[in-house]
Design a protein that fits this description.
This protein is mostly helical. About 50% of the residues lie in helices and about 10% in strands. The protein has a three-stranded antiparallel β-sheet. It is elongated, with a radius of gyration of 22 Å.
Length: about 200
């Protein structure tokens, strides 16, 4: 049963990778386009959408998401590059739709803010990130920040529920469990796959 399930997971791998790439592209494109519009339309004004709750206000952020640690611009740029590399490597093992969406949100958000660090003033690796969504009593943020936060929360939830990135289902009757026994006189039930999936 587990062999059939894992074969089905492997067959669906290209689809999961496609979901990951589509999510990444959608987040990145939405972030870039929204920042271009924000710079163009909000440079000399703000727009109140919900009085006392939400308005659009252009700011430049040298720190991390929501304006944290504004003096560590280069450090956050290097961290973003490292995160992107790690996600790209992990994505090769994607077999889970939930993880494909989660990593796509994280990568799209990281790429969106990294682009600002690379191309905006005052210079390479030190560029200021464009923020434009202002919830009152909350720091101004952008679509990339939102995607990173949502992706991070989803990652915590998936990890807490023991949902693996590679989508494999581990056999429950292996000898390592020490408790499951096979038919009388045959000892613990054997796992025909052995340890082949361990560590994937």
């Amino acid at each position: 049963m587990h062999e059939d399930a894992n074969r089905a997971v492997e067959a669906a791998a290209p689809r999961r990778l496609g979901i990951f790439l589509v999510t990444t592209t959608a987040v990145f494109a939405a972030d870039v386009i929204s920042k271009i519009l924000a710079v163009s339309e909000l440079s000399d004004r703000s727009v109140e959408l919900v009085p006392g709750v939400l308005d659009l206000e252009l700011t430049r952020n040298r720190g991390a998401a929501f304006g944290v640690a504004g003096g560590a611009t280069i450090l956050f740029t290097l961290v973003a590059v490292a995160v992107i590399v790690v996600i790209a490597r992990v994505a090769r093992r994607l077999r889970s739709t939930a993880w494909a969406i989660t990593l796509g949100l994280l990568l799209g958000g990281a790429l969106g803010n990294l682009l600002d660090r690379l191309v905006r003033s005052p210079g390479l690796l030190r560029g200021e990130v464009v923020d434009w969504i202002h919830l009152h009593h909350w720091p101004v943020f952008n679509i990339a920040d939102s995607a990173i936060v949502v992706g991070g929360l989803l990652a915590v939830l998936l990890t807490a529920r023991n949902i693996p990135i590679d989508g494999r289902r581990e056999p429950t009757g292996s000898a390592d469990s020490g408790g499951s026994a096979g038919p009388v006189g045959q000892g613990p039930a054997a796992d025909p796959r052995g340890d082949r999936d361990q560590g994937d």
